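User: what does the whole thing look like in 3D?
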Amino acid sequence: MADKRSYHMTPDEFRRHGRAVVDWIADYYERIENFPVVSRAKPGEIRGSLPSSAPEHGESFESMLQDVEKLILPGVTHWQSPNFYAYFPSNNSFPSMLGELLSAGLGVQGMLWATSPACTELETHVLDWLVGMLGLPDAFRSTSTGGGVIQDTASSASLCALLAGRERATKLASNERGCDGHLVAYTSSQAHSSIEKAVKIAGIGRENLRLVEVDRDFAMRPDALDAAIRQDLAASRLPCFVCATVGTTSSNALDPVRAIGEICRRHGIWLHVDAAMSGTAALCPEFRHIQDGLDLADSYAFNPHKWMFTNFDSNCFYVRDRKALIDTLSVLPEYLRNRATESGAVIDYRDWHIPLGRRFRALKLWFVIRHYGVEGLRFHVRRHVELAQGFARWIRDESRFELAAPAPLNLVCFRHYRGDAANQRIMDRLNSSGDLYLTHTRLDGRLTLRLCVGQWQTELRHVELARQRIGEEAAALEHVA
Amino acid sequence: MADKRSYHMTPDEFRRHGRAVVDWIADYYERIENFPVVSRAKPGEIRGSLPSSAPEHGESFESMLQDVEKLILPGVTHWQSPNFYAYFPSNNSFPSMLGELLSAGLGVQGMLWATSPACTELETHVLDWLVGMLGLPDAFRSTSTGGGVIQDTASSASLCALLAGRERATKLASNERGCDGHLVAYTSSQAHSSIEKAVKIAGIGRENLRLVEVDRDFAMRPDALDAAIRQDLAASRLPCFVCATVGTTSSNALDPVRAIGEICRRHGIWLHVDAAMSGTAALCPEFRHIQDGLDLADSYAFNPHKWMFTNFDSNCFYVRDRKALIDTLSVLPEYLRNRATESGAVIDYRDWHIPLGRRFRALKLWFVIRHYGVEGLRFHVRRHVELAQGFARWIRDESRFELAAPAPLNLVCFRHYRGDAANQRIMDRLNSSGDLYLTHTRLDGRLTLRLCVGQWQTELRHVELARQRIGEEAAALEHVA
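Assistant: Here's the predicted 3D structure for the full assembly of 962 residues, as structure tokens:
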């Protein structure tokens, strides 16, 4: 029990309970394949097991950890299971967890350089490391005109990019005066829903987001983008933002960044490149072609919390011109003034995103990069791509299935020849079996299954199990009318 | 070293390194008073100690933890020191750290109910608990028309509230069409900078934020608010949002929520109440008067990560009408469709904030509440208020100092009679001594020192040390020309 005088857990109790939690997590990963990947909880079931009001008196930590096992775990869908292939991964690693724990332990606020210099400097430093690791444009380095920052998610990064683009476009037109209803933004019809959300948030309005047509591979058509921009300009509208996607959520389509970038440069429009999952592939030189043309982009984001073994949240957002971003988001009240800020010699990350407060997220990224080394990270990216490509070959060879889109990296989109109901049935049966977890999308109007290989512990045997189970469910379909 | 075949840290290595990190944190708290509270690092010093590029090969965890001690710690400002009185606190506790660790270990995404039911249901449940614990309006319960959600910060919560207010006001005027340049928002001249930031983000424009005059206690004047709204209406502008503050960052001023709420109701304007730090005081019935009138608010936020022993980030955001919030932020792409969402029986928190992805933050809040019990949390709030009130009495009795604002709770604003330079000198000398950390504000145009008691391990002896050191620096001033 806690210190009687203060109710606090003592340091020695923390040592003991901390070990118990570390062991619980280690045990969890040793038995993770025993759980059904998708939780079988019914709506309200978890809540129903909890007391209706908060306890008046403190409880033992042991009882809390027991409740995690007994009440919470049945309601968990195991995102870290090696049999998880749904959505995009949100992967993880032991070094990352330890970085998160240290960050929680130190409990510093990194809103200003002055409020904890190491929090800002390690972040700037590791984000500069990543420029080299991924072969990103030098302008994204903090030692150049740009720089990187850790945001929570790609949604927030896209919003910040849109705002910077909006401000750049309206500087002469309506500075400080709010939107004027003539701004227009562009992304492909396959882009992430966060772009639509960002456009709503920024007051540009959903009607003023153009969903540009895609080609047969679901990548944005530059000619269609150019035509849309010209049409808006002719109608006296103000194009302010283009978002290209390197690896769409739906099918991993790769928008042609160079061609899009040239159009944006010609019209002076802010280009943001969203590479939330696939950006990590650029660790390997042989995959860097996916970001060809990135030197023409104004901003870029990818999520180490998707495919680079860093637990959520960790989005890396880069800009070519940090002044444009800071001017967009900076507000400086008296209570945050300090000498370091006024010297101009430091970065204050509060001006680089929506929130003011921020935690020491660079620690976990630093731990992951140092633990694996660049070679270890490359090893896993290559292995995941190889496993996905092996699965794609099987689909190509399987007469009952077809590939629904190119599979350039680690996501495979496929469907059974018998149409939507059959594919829905296959997916539902696989997911409710507990053996694996797949999700779907819709391509060319047809229900399509997605298998994304990116979980940190996924091995060949797991993908072979997936193949076998998909084959079995397809075979079972033969007996269904 | 890591598993040779996979580069992963093995579960057994994680057990060992995890213990080392837990012990490091326990040790850190046992020696935290030995460090200067404010880091003495110079700009660039931390970066200068790090290798210029990422390691090609993995390194040992031992070397990483040694670097935390040797390279990072000197760049840390000790927010968790009991001698930290700056800004608002960002406090912490051992049970909270363990909740954060478990959340990192499970690594689930709670964007949809379906992606991990326990993540959503525990959050909804604990936020309903807090309605009871704090005496909030019943409409904020998920079982009524409203509900609560964990956001990262009060800045993000204010932005979401503003967006919901903007959508409500423009529903008939410009639905889906973006801002029309006639929207107006209101807050007091003492409100947090995040409101100005939110107004910029939302495309309303800084010019259209009215900073309403305050009374002698720095609280918003309802008559001035009413006059400003009437003036805007007369000019055919569209008032959409009012933010009242319960405990301003500058001086802990308490806006009169009931009077403001009545004005908002009369004009049909969304009222958000920002109680980022002070909201926690409502755990104690004797302090609940600060939120009188909250039944008239449309939304409300407070931060357990400030004063309720929950490590950053943890902001609790409540709305009276969840449909208004969801309609504002919802976008539903095919790849997120699922049966549970379509049944309408579940909450999908992705529609309650800016990001899509979200981690299992309810775990740490659940651990904190269960560990301390409501009585333990109340004990600390009362103790902090008592310590701050004792300090305020000393200031009142000290002829060299004066209180610069009322000190209703745990923040004391004070200044030396000799003016700005003297106060700046006192603050600089205190902070550079390493003994404690204070920050400043400006009230009535004069530099004012702030002492906020809210760190979890702050005891009477720490506040007595602060008193003594402030007295010494004031005495030293006597010898300065």
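In plain terms: Chain A is about 45% helix and 10% strand. Chain A has a mean pLDDT of 95.
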